[in-house]
Amino acid sequence: MPTSKERLKSKIIEVMDECGLEDNSPEDSKIKFAEAIAEAVIFEIKNMTITATAPNGAVTIIKIE
Prior knowledge:
Blueprint: H1 5-21, H2 26-46
């Protein structure tokens, strides 16, 4: 699955809306926001498609963590 700017943008908006509705402390909301955005970015990175060329053959991506 390729990365998706629209999917990531939608997730950011969703998280912002959720955090905007919270009545908790601002610190809790900030932590929740940061965790959710980090998860969304990591999801996109892990699901990216990498296309590369090399003069001596194919490039193999072993792992993205």
